[in-house]
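Re: weekly structure request thread

Next one in the queue (170 aa):
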Amino acid sequence: MKYLLYLLSVISLLSFSLLVIAKDNPDDLLPIQISSDSFEFNNTTGVATYKGKIEVTQGSRQLTSTSLNIYRSKDGSIDRMIAVGSPAKYQGQTDPKKPLLYAHADTIEYYVQKELLILMGHAEVEQAGDKYQAPRIEYDSANERINSHATSSGRTTITIQPRDNKNKGL
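Done, posted below.
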């Protein structure tokens, strides 16, 4: 009887853990679908290379590019992705309670464990009408931060939409 109660409590805990993960971002639990014109995988290095018209989907997440490298860690999980395009485009739900995030740049790097999106070259991020444009943008989803560092190749431009009657401007 004690074993049965223990087993039920472990199953309940695991179910709750999956529910919490799914609540944070349900897309994390969905499979990744990739289509491309060509594909190469090096099992020794753990690097998959896709070329041509590339489309990646995972729930609300979509990535399009002309070149994509996916790097796997030793345990086989995806560590990072680097997409190049003219431009490479990304969209996804960062939080189920927030509108979709749209981003594009010449190069998009995504670090899965850190939940860090780095956009380089003609970078732009838009969410809920707010728009950030810069030569380089770092979008840290885990810590809810967006950064654009000073560069000699351009300035940062930000457009912020009013949210309610209290926020009418400067």
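The longest helix spans residues 2-24. The chain has two domains: 1-30, 31-159.
Next request, please.
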